[in-house]
Input
Amino acid sequence: MPRIGIFDSGVGGLTVQRAILDALPGLDTVYLGDTARVPYGTKSPEVVTQYSIRNGRVLVAHGVEMLVVACNTASAVALPAMREAFDVPVLGVVEPGARAAARATRTGKVGILGTQSTVASGAYQRALAALIPGVEVTARACPLFVPLAEEGWTDPGDEVVRLVARRYLAPVRAAGVDVVVLGCTHYPLLAAAIAAELPGVTLVDSAAAIAAEVRERFPGAASGGPASHAFLVTDTPDRFLGVAPRFLGRPVESARHVDV
Output
């Protein structure tokens, strides 16, 4: 069976892996969480690119046939350098997410939720502008969504979750968007809370979009198994193991520390 490498700055990329495994249960995977350097969303593009290439080298050394950059921040700033550095295909989550949003919108008004770096990079804005002439994009950084997701505070009925979501999403709602891209791997865990503040708005999960593109590359992995999955982290494997099942939707029994 083919093997792909997936990396993120931490545990959030497991939502991307989850979508890929749901679509391709016969696919072997190696996941790398750069937990020693999380978060990427507040770092410079140059530093994020350096980290991304180092992560890619570790995964390529494991014999992967494709690299999936699950981190939206790294996808936004590091893909050109990674595609130049590696011979295997490199997929990011920005372009598939933008294509899914372009298919879903009826009004040409699209919201983007992401980290500060993802929003500031303009990557989603550029991708959407290339797909939808005259698109109106409202982009909003929502940094507190990440710790809420990692702490398991995702219930839309929770007062803290509701107030944070309302504060972040009020400008997006006022802009009249009909589609919102969840441009951070943590945000799907808060989809119900986000939807509650944006009634009638379609939420686009970049994880599902990239899973569809991986399936096009490896259609034979849509059936079969059992597949093997390795988990690598750059710091605190025990903390990773405590949080990972919430994001992956299945048990994670072991994670190995690696130096990057």
Q: What stands out?
A: The first strand starts at residue 3 and ends at 8.
